[in-house]
Amino acid sequence: MYYHTPDTSRYITLIRHFRIAIIALFILLSAAALTLLKPELLSSDTMFWLSESKQLEKTQQQSYATTYVKRLSIDVPAFNNATKNTLQALQTELEHIEGVEQVESLLSAHMIFNDQSSEESALVKALPITNISSEKIIALVKTFPDPYRRFVSDDFHRFHFIIHSEQPIQVDHLNIPFDYDYSEPDVEATTAHYFWYVVILLSVVLAMSYIVFKNIIAAIGAISVTIITLIWTFALIYLLTGIKQIHIAMSLMVVSIAIGHYLYFYYRWHVSQFKSDPNRALEKSINRNLHPAVWTLPVLLISLGSLLIADSSIITMMSLSLMISSTVAYVVSIVFLPALLSFFTITNPRIALARVCYCLPIKRFITTRNFCKNLCFSL
After folding, report:
1. What is the domain extent for residue 272?
2. Residue 285 contacts residue 268 (beta carbons within 8 Å)
3. What is the pTM of this model?
4. Among the four residues 40, 87, 225, 351, which has the most C-beta atoms within 10 Å?
5. Please, which residues have CB within 8 angstroms of residue 258's CB and are 6 or more apart in sequence?
6. SS3 at position 203
């Protein structure tokens, strides 16, 4: 039996009365925060570690110009003089694109040779490869493959152009009569990156919620709480620090915090409908968990707050994201989640894996007890 639980009936009545307005307010604030944030999703922690480098700081102070390096790979059916002329024309076209600083390829290389006119004098000459025939080019590359290995394949069917430019460029408008691949560095996260990240995240949450609770309501609540917590957490981090870069590990930590708070309140609402109506179940989910959940916040804030003065920016950012996400998840769970759940009713409130959770500790206890008995008798 529960004692000293707060009376949350008036609070739940207020939530139910303004539930549409509460849900709309959370959605509008999340949309505004996402518009403000415009995050950059990162999967590499290189820049986080380099951000503490003194050498990187000195390099940034030099204000060096950024150079973007791309590779254009051309597949040709056969390499002959006609193909050489076509590739040479493409080389010239690439060099005349605005912002291009240099184009490295087999056709921009030179053939270095010793031009000995007599026994007493000799000159080292550099002859552009474009000035010799395709047969001599093949013979030269096969004789001295190391300088040209990164520009052409061994069978002379694939040629590479290394493009250095001041800004990202596109080659779609170029007249390239052969099949080609164009690879360029990802200077920022694209829409496809966000799309697949969100799809995988939502799929995992949806599958786990449906497997455990056997209804779609749990999945809807979990996805809503997780998305709002993610957006609000990184929006607040951006407002406090000005950092838009979001490492994927940070987002996964925020997801785990959000799911933990969500399950804390949703589970009580779910199982309370065995004997109570949905409104009473909503009250139980708040009054049974309000105090335990709120006391986890100061404990977490105090334990992680000390890490904010650490010298490592990585540790500071991780600690800040955990502190903010815990606070946001708690607010969302006691305000937005009751307003959302008030629209639904569970007809069969059972937990799929409940028996497994009970059986495993019991079996473990019996095994340990038998082991202790045997140990005492043997002694």
Report:
1. 9-39+189-348
2. yes
3. 0.62
4. 225
5. 225, 226, 229, 230, 325, 329, 332
6. helix
Which tokens belong to 123?
A: 């000159």
Q: Which of 11, 50, 65 is nearest to 245 (CA)?
A: 50
Low-confidence ranges of the chain (pLDDT < 50): 1, 187, 358, 365, 371, 375, 378-379
* 343 shares a domain with 202: yes
Alpha helices per DSSP H over the chain: 9-17, 19-37, 46-50, 54-61, 81-95, 134-143, 191-213, 216-241, 248-271, 278-287, 290-305, 313-331, 337-341, 354-378
Domain boundary among 183, 207, 241: 183
DSSP secondary structure letter of residue 343 = T
Q: What is the pLDDT of residues 28-56, one digit of tens each?
A: 999 988 887 766 666 556 666 666 667 77
Rounded to whole angstroms, how far apart are CA atoms 10 and 301? 29
Domain contains 217: yes
Q: Are 146 and 200 within one domain?
A: no
Residue 170 and residue 35 share a domain: no
What CA–CA distance (Å, rounded) separates 39 from 89?
A: 41
Q: What is the DSSP letter of 47?
A: H
Residue 288 lies in a domain: yes
Give CA–CA dist 317/352, Å, rounded.
37
pLDDT tens digits, 279-320: 888 888 888 887 777 787 888 788 777 777 777 777 788 888
Same domain, 152 and 119: yes
Question: Is beta strand 40-42 parallel, antiparallel or unpaired with respect to 245-247?
Answer: parallel
